[in-house]
Amino acid sequence: MAEARPRVWVSQPLFGDIVARLGEHFELDAATDVTIWSPDAIADRLHDASGALVTLNERIGAGEIASATALRAVANVGVGYDNLDVAALHARGIVATNTPDVLTETTADMAFALLMAAARRVTEGERWLREGRWTQWSFDTLLGHDVHGSTLGILGMGRIGQGVARRGALGFGMRVLYHNRSRLPERIESNSRAAWVDLDTLLRAADHLVLVLPYSSATRHLIDAAALAKMKPTATLTNIARGGLVDEDALADALSHGRLAAAALDVFEGEPSVNPRLLALRNVVLTPHVGSASLATRRAMASLAVDNLIAALGHGPRAGDPPTPIGAPAAGGIPAKR
Ligand code: 8YV
C-alpha cells in the first residue's frame, strides 16, 4: 500500500495554479472560500497537517499547534508575521517563513498613493464632488499641503521604508528623515537619501509621517496622544504597517480638533472593523489593507510562500532550505521592518 502523503493546509483561497504546485508533493487541504477561522477550527485543520500556508487572518500560536504533532512548517503569505507566535513555533522545531522583498516596491507605491491622497485631499474631494456639493469653482476649495519639497518622516526603515524614502527623495525632492531601532549603514542611508534622527525629532520635523514598522507588544500604540501632540498641525500620518501601532481614538481626537491635518490608513487595530470615529471623519483616507494588492505582487507572494512550504517540508530544488525563513524573534525596541 502506498504511504499516505503529508497533508498541508491552505487557509484561504489563493491563486489556484500556484497552490496546485503543493499538490505535486502533498495531500492538499485548501480552502475554496474566504473563511473566518476560529482558534478551534485552526487547531482542527492543523491537527494532522505537516505544513500550513496561512495569511494574516489566521493567528497561529501555542494553542493552535498544541495537538499538531506532525506540523513542521508554517508559511505566512505576507512580510509582517505578527499573526504567528514565532517563539512558540520555534520551540516546537516548526519552521516559519514569510514573504519579504517581493512586495517591497508595490507597498512603497501604495504608501505614496495614500500619503498624496491625504496631503492633497483626493478622496475627500471626490466624496465632496459626488455629494453634489461642487456648485461653483472657488479659489480656496479643499486646500491641502504640499508633498514636493516637504519633509518626509519614515518610522521603520526596512526595505519598504527605504522604497518610500527613494520615492520621496528622487521623485518629489523631499528631505527624508527616518527613525529605526538601529541606524542603517551609510551605504543604505545614501541610497535612500535618508538621515537618521531620534523619534522625538522625527515626530516634530515630519510634514508627512509614514509608519512602516512591525507590530509587536513593544510597538503597540507607539503613535499615541503624546506622540501625535508632537506632530505639526499641518502634518499627515500614513499607516501601511499594522493598525495596532496607532491609538485610533487619540488619532480621531487629533484629526477632529485640527491638531493633525489628515491621515491615511490601510490597516486598523480591529480590522476588518474600523473605528466608527475614523469612519465619520472627512480628513482620513481609508483603504482595506491592500498595500501589497497588485496582481503581480500577490502572485509573487503566493508563489514564494508555496516555495517556502515545499522546501521547508524537504521537497523541491531547495529541499530543507526555504528561501525566506523567519529568524528568532527580535527583543524590545523599535525593530527594523521588512
Ligand atoms: C499582505 C501585509 O497582503 O505583507 C504584509 O505584511 O500586510 C500584506 O501585504 C497580508 O499580510 C496577507 O496575508
TrEMBL record:
Where's the D-isomer specific 2-hydroxyacid dehydrogenase catalytic domain? 38-316
Q: Which domain of life is it from?
A: Bacteria
The record's CDD domains line, in alphabetical order, gives: GDH
Q: Which InterPro entries match?
A: D-isomer_2-hydroxyacid_DH, D-isomer_2_OHA_DH_cat_dom, D-isomer_DH_CS1, D-isomer_DH_NAD-bd, NAD(P)-bd_dom_sf
Biased composition of type Low complexity is found at 327-338
Keyword Oxidoreductase on entry: yes
Region ranges (Disordered) = 316-338
Q: Please state every residue range assigned to the domain named D-isomer specific 2-hydroxyacid dehydrogenase NAD-binding.
A: 112-291
A single Pfam family, by name? 2-Hacid_dh
GO molecular-function term, one example from the UniProt record: oxidoreductase activity
List its EC numbers.
1.1.1.-
What family is this protein classified in?
Belongs to the D-isomer specific 2-hydroxyacid dehydrogenase family.
Task: Please identify the protein, giving its name as recorded.
Answer: D-glycerate dehydrogenase
